[in-house]
Amino acid sequence: MNPKNSFRVIVVFASFVSALAATCPVNAPRNVVTFSTATNESTGTAYFMNDGVHGNYIFAADIGTDAKLILRKGYFTGGFGAHGIHEGPDPFFSQGSIHVNEDKRILMIPNAGSNSLTTFRINPTDPSDLKMIGNPVPSGGEYPVSITMNKAGDMACALNGGRINGVSCFKLDLEKGLVPLPGMTRYLNINQTTPPVGPEGSAGQVEFSEDEKYLLVIVKGSTPSSAYVAVWDVYPDGSFSPTFRTISGGFLPWSITNIPGRNAFISADGLVGYDIYDLELLESDPGARATEYVIPKQIAICWSAYSRSTDNYYLAEFGTSSLIEIHVDENLKGSTVANHTANANDGSAELAITSVGGKDYAYNIAPNPTAINVFSLDGPGRATLIQTLYAGAQIRAAGIEMSPDYIAGMAVYRKRQ
Ligand SMILES: *[C@@H]1O[C@H](CO)[C@@H](O)[C@H](O)[C@H]1NC(C)=O
Ligand SMILES: *[C@@H]1O[C@H](CO)[C@@H](O)[C@H](O)[C@H]1NC(C)=O
Ligand SMILES: *[C@@H]1O[C@H](CO)[C@@H](O)[C@H](O)[C@H]1NC(C)=O
What we know:
5% of the residues lie in helices and 44% in strands. It is mainly beta and 417 residues long. The strands form seven sheets. The protein has a five-stranded antiparallel beta sheet with strand order 1-4-3-2-30, covered by helices on one side. Strands 5, 6, 7, 8 and 9 form a five-stranded antiparallel beta sheet that branches. It has a four-stranded antiparallel beta sheet with strand order 10-11-12-13, with no helix packed on it.
């Protein structure tokens, strides 16, 4: 993601495209790679991926009782990664490329270069221990980048962002993995390629609305003010409306983070700061737009997450390597609370927030050093960087590719006490 490209002509380098096309496995990927032995002290696991073009891997790092990470394992997904057509970190222009369902103890990951989805079973006593369920299944389109699940945990929906783009939904079978649901593919018909050109005009994230009455996909603008959220109605029998409605607004909305208890969400906006979409307006005011909030001095805010313990939102600001903390009040009005910086030049990409010992912590990808920054969320307005895990160095030392431009995803599983 190069913010300088925003709304300017993007030059597509022919050599870059052919380099992508020429990627085939050199060394057969190993199914499991072990970085360290288990301790019985872990409280959960943080997961991220290499989007590897020679083998897509999901990595698992134990979360200790002190909330710090220890890299444990890497698992080949059976698929391959791919990078969108743009220079620099953030291969997918997206959020939600790893989905964890803690109740079903399931992890799902798209393989962007293979148009497939892989499902793993999580061992609840050692959540860094994953077992693939079945084989990767076709994603129902091209260049899958984001996946989510309903609250019941029986239906998963994947977002394809390439030439054939839209959502495809699956039934979760705990023995077989994801099973396609007939008639549950809906196309966005964005004018895109595989891999997609971005970030302008690329698909962002798929998510259910808080009340699960809607299935949502956020789409970045290709010209100023052409961004929108696509909204399909979810009927009581679980099927979707044939076509989608939209709420326009924002410029480069990247993410969907639901606002608890409200039929609304916040989206990190790579051009301005963030946008708040109020889904109630779909019924009451069909012409309504999202509200755009400008964060001065931001360079590229692309990811978002919510903390229950601080009741605030954290936006990953790539350009100044920081987490921007936002509060949203009862009138859905946003305000900036604080700016928490990581190490200079780390970059800041996808993040996930979980609780350890009653306090929330943010696990945030730092693409430039292929690391993970762990922030302790000490209270509203207060956060402390407590660890930088230089995972990439360990992964490369094990002979597996891991580069700043490809590191992606972030999801967490918390052990039941
Ligand atoms: C953790 O493992 C150590 C060594 O195997 C053992 O002595 C200890 O009792 C274990 N602790 C718990 C809480 O299971
Ligand atoms: C799709 O995008 C390409 C490349 O930008 C452009 O040449 C073409 O005209 C577009 N097609 C439509 C139908 O907008
Ligand atoms: C966050 O704080 C850092 C350090 O003071 C500063 O360099 C950066 O510009 C700030 N970012 C934003 C978006 O205000």
